[in-house]
């Protein structure tokens, strides 16, 4: 726990609410229409291809969330994808799951619930 500052309870609560209230949520650099990094863009493209509704949070606009989300998920990089309240992974994991069909199933289950 030596690196950086621990996230505040407020930030944790904010992330909790975001994760709970959105079936598919992407914490990314930039916005859905203007991704600011290639990895974030990959994830947006995958969900666009699937044609499913998803929300994005621009971590560049919110330094507390940018830092907090890494601690929240225990995952060091952005983007981060949450489906049905669970952390799924980043860009590489999304691509792999998309290619093997797991992501489509997971998304269908999430949107049906």
UniProtKB/TrEMBL annotation:
A GO molecular-function descriptor: 2 iron, 2 sulfur cluster binding
This protein's record includes keyword Ribonucleoprotein: no
Annotated [2Fe-2S] cluster binding sites: 37
Keyword Metal-binding carried by entry: yes
UniProt superkingdom: Bacteria
UniProt keyword annotations, A-Z: 2Fe-2S, Iron, Iron-sulfur, Metal-binding, Redox-active center
Glutaredoxin domain sequence ranges: 24-88
Family note: Belongs to the glutaredoxin family. Monothiol subfamily.
Protein known as: Glutaredoxin
UniProt organism field: Crocosphaera subtropica (strain ATCC 51142 / BH68) (Cyanothece sp. (strain ATCC 51142))
């Amino acid at each position: 726990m030596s690196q950086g500052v621990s996230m505040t309870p407020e930030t944790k609560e904010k992330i909790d609410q975001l994760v709970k209230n959105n079936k598919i949520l992407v914490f990314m650099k930039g916005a859905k229409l203007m991704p600011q990094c290639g990895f974030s863009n990959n994830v947006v493209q995958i969900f666009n291809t699937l044609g499913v509704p998803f929300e994005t949070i621009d971590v560049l606009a919110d330094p507390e969330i940018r830092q907090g989300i890494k601690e929240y998920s225990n995952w060091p990089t952005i983007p981060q994808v949450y489906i049905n309240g669970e952390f799924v992974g980043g860009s590489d994991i999304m691509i792999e799951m998309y290619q093997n069909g797991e992501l489509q199933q997971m998304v269908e289950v999430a949107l049906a619930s």
